[in-house]
Amino acid sequence: MQRRFQQVDVFSTVPYKGNPLGVVLDGDGLEDEAMRNYSLWSNLSEATFILPARHVQADYRFRIFARDREYPFAGHPALGTARAWLQAGGVPRDPKQLIAECGAGLVPIRIDGELLSFASPPATRTGAIGRRELAEMLQILGIGTEQVVDAQWVDNGPGWAAILLQDAQQVLEISAQAPQRSGRWKIGVLGALPPSTPGGGFEVRALTIENGAVREDPVTGSLNGAAAQWLIDAGHAAAPLVNRQGAKAGRDGEVHLEMADGQLWVGGATNVLIEGSIDL
């Protein structure tokens, strides 16, 4: 069956320099296996499927597949799906903010031209990373404990752990290697950008280690949001700030982080680059 499809570039003002997202606009009636099969085949970090809302306050519902896994929430899929829905003719109840429904619940998304921002959901896992787990992560990253300023679980859906290093250059110099034993890690690494950088903020890298392979996510909303909340709460940062991500993956990502009425908002540019149909 032919279904409407878009591919959206998220978190960059430069075309093809953000994080791509495949969005199936007519996901109603699709079996889980079909969604999973497309996500695996696409080789994108995530793909989403728009469905009719179940919650009375939601403008639409969407599901997120990251290859063979389904996530309750992820940042760049939230923004990319919102942009696709709007471009396809979706009209939110509130012209300044739409409400998207996902596995994590209702996610408000502010609309400000090309800049969309989601309300970062609360972390489902926080606290210190155990000594043994942290040692394994540092071995994967190839760095020593003397480079670590702080570390914490910042899981708001995908399973992120965050490690703060002394500066951005140390983040860029990391060359991760998958461990010998089987396992799955999602590691975010951050280091402060030079003070002269517009927007301040941090250099960010997001690494998934699974099945003996290391994958680097170009630009990651969920990690940036959860890590920023931790850094602000711990006194390592103050909002507003603009994080950079994607340099080692050949991308030019910018993530805007702002506090408003006690809520952290995570935003970035969103642009539809491909429109058509997909046979699912």
Automatic annotation (TrEMBL):
Transmembrane segments: none
Matching Pfam families: PhzC-PhzF
Superkingdom of the source species: Bacteria
Protein known as: PhzF family phenazine biosynthesis protein
